[in-house]
Amino acid sequence: MRSRGRHHVKAVGFFKDRNENVFAALRIGVGIFFLVFGEYKVFGTQFTLGRGFQAWINRFIAHGAYPFMVPVLRNFVLPHGTAIAFLVAYGEFAIGLALAFGVLTRTASFWGLLLMVAMIFSSDSPGAGAAFWQYFGASLSHSVFAMCFLAFIFGDADLALAIWPRATRLQSS
Hints:
Elements: E1 2-4, E2 7-9, H1 18-43, H2 52-62, H3 70-77, H4 81-101, H5 105-123, H6 132-138, H7 140-154, E3 167-169
Antiparallel strand pairs: 1-2, 2-3
Helix pairs in contact: 1-4, 2-3, 4-5, 5-7
């Protein structure tokens, strides 16, 4: 750390702190995933205007939604499908940008966590009578991202290899 008066500026770069670098790599990797997820939705029309979103929601209703989510999907999400499709598309893209560049990481992670919880309950039900462990297996595609978002919210992911250094105030002893 370099000292600047009463502030410390955390040096940005590789090999300063291995845990910080691994955390940054995870954050950037998740960001790239979400950039890819959002990119085809934002720059194409199939998902947003071509009823691709609605097709996914109908699939979730038929196979995968937890029973309490079916009325929400059928009575709220489907009637507002195009608007929600745009929210999902631009939301995923914005989450990806924020995480990849280390900007507003906690905010992006909060919205990413909400999206993953919605996806878990909308698409990852293993079905009635499933064994307890099957709930975890059915949600792997979303629960792993949810855990990453939790780590980014409660950890210092926004400090690890962000696009600008953060000044932190010294604590007086």
